[in-house]
Amino acid sequence: MRFTVTNGIKMDVEVTKSDLKTIASKNTQDNRFNAFKNKLAQDIRGFIEKAKYEGWREVIPGKHPETAYFAYFSRELGEKAYLCIRKIKNTGLFKPYAIIDQKTFDAEITNLRK
């Protein structure tokens, strides 16, 4: 599925079954949050449209060479969830990568830019 959405930044987004499998595989120790994020993954477009743009960060050197940067969007739905979406260098498309909890977001946001 492909769509264009603007929320903080304009993005041409592509979501594949492989992307959804990646999101589902990135579990926390909180099984309730894991079920919650897997439900959210069923509507990535809706998540982005209703979310707050938190900013973007550069890729950690040596990891994800196909990725230009990661952007983060948050929603408060009983608990805070963050969509981590990456911009792919060679296509310019944005692809969802993970839905993470507050603890994981706090650990990853060093050098977050608006």
Structure report:
The protein has 114 residues and is an alpha+beta fold. It has one domain. 29% of the residues lie in helices and 39% in strands. It has four helices and six strands, in the order E-E-H-H-H-E-E-E-E-H. The protein has helices at 17-25, 31-40, 44-50, 102-108; strands at 2-7, 9-14, 52-58, 67-76, 80-88, 94-100. Strands 3-4-5-6 form a four-stranded antiparallel β-sheet. A hairpin with a 1-residue loop joins strand 1 and strand 2 (9-14). It is globular, with a radius of gyration of 13 Å. The chain starts with a strand and ends in a 6-residue tail after the last helix.
| Strand portion | 35-45%
- Low-confidence segments, given as residue ranges, are none
Q: How many distinct helices? A: 4
Global shape = globular
Q: What is the average of the pLDDT values?
A: 94
Radius of gyration: 13 Å
User: Topology as H/E string?
Assistant: EEHHHEEEEH
| Total number of domains | 1
State the major sheet: 4 strands, antiparallel
The helicity comes to 25-40%
Count of β-strands: 6
Which structural class do you get from the secondary structure elements?
A: alpha+beta
With strands numbered from the N-terminus, the spatial order across the biggest sheet is 3-4-5-6
Distance between the first and last residues' Cα:
27 Å
